Amino acid sequence: MKNLYRVLSIPYVMLVLFCFIQDGTAQIPTNQWNRSKINKYFSDRAKSLGVEQSSLKGADGKINSFDDQYCSDFGVIDITPDTWDPSTTTITWTIQTFVGAPEFHPDWADVVGTGNATVLKFYPDRVTPEYFGAPIWFEYIQRNSLGFIVDTKFDYTTVYLRPTAFDVSGNTEVCIGNSAMVTLSNSEAGVEYTLKRVSDDAPVGFTITGASGGGSINFPLTPLAVGATDYYVEAINPNNNSCSSIMNGTATVTVHPLPVPTAGNDGPVCEGGTINLSGGPAGITYAWTGPNGFTSNLQNPVLSNVSMADAGVYMLTVTDGNTCEQSTNTTVTINANPSITAGSNSPVCEGSAINLTSSPAGGSGTYTAFNWTGPNGFTASTQNPTVANATLAASGDYTVTVTDNLGCSSTLAATETVLVTER
Asked: What is the fold of 338-421?
């Protein structure tokens, strides 16, 4: 068998080449010719080839063997005339674009066969990116054995970018309340990228359009719900939604709940007492801070011999095994101890009365108990007791303490020295 010959018509006049090089893009060229200008071009071309004007009737009709649009990764398309003139012995095809200046593209197709068995095999994946979205015009001319034109027709299709599949990344674990990020490694100008959940294909956030020159795209995720969610990215050519792609891979974002801390104490206590702080839950790490420079990493720290400077808010931050943390606090109340001074009518003569006095201060201000002790087995529980008919044995030191209504007592007893003299 003879080799299949390939015929693509060559323009009769050398045309100025107008093109620009760019990466894959979904942006449609802005300097395209309008339809009337293109029709005139083909009309003039037909006249230059010697086709009578009457033969142009219907010459801009549809060539039914191809569709009006394709995605850039579509396979081969076999294009043939709708009808063959019985006298046709040869057919020539031209493929043209009208972006800036007319250009011929013989390398976008192969011609297979001869005569009325000729097929034009068009490959959308050979169309270069600068012509995505621009009409691609196909023209055929059938000639008889004498070389005369017996039929001609032209029609167009449009090839749109099928977005390139780039890689999705962003497997991460975060604590609830924080944000996460899913990243697409690259993008193409004009393509619309949407992050979606794998579970229900629902879009997440807003669509991001690829910028000129491409580059990576970050999809922020906030707020997030507790649990593991898988995400993928869909890319759509907005000029032809059927030209879409699912990007490579998925990203799993795992959101952990925060631990629920508890904090408490066994106060209130009086000055000098002990405060037992309590924290929860068990089995995690703890960080306490509080007044007077207090810090501790214990779950249940103890404050001994507390002073008024230790009163206030104690903050507990707990951190779990997922490094998620949350804080709470407890307020420690410390009651001030009262103080007291003692006095008497000393010196007194033997047989006279000793009048003891006390003056409490501080604490809550409400005093509920006094405790006196002294020589000769003396005790009393009133604020200002009396020792009647004092003897020489009543001479000595008398001490008193006071307790307020909060149960706090003076830590230092007041002492009064009494002298009983002989008559």
From this structure: Immunoglobulin-like (2.60.40)
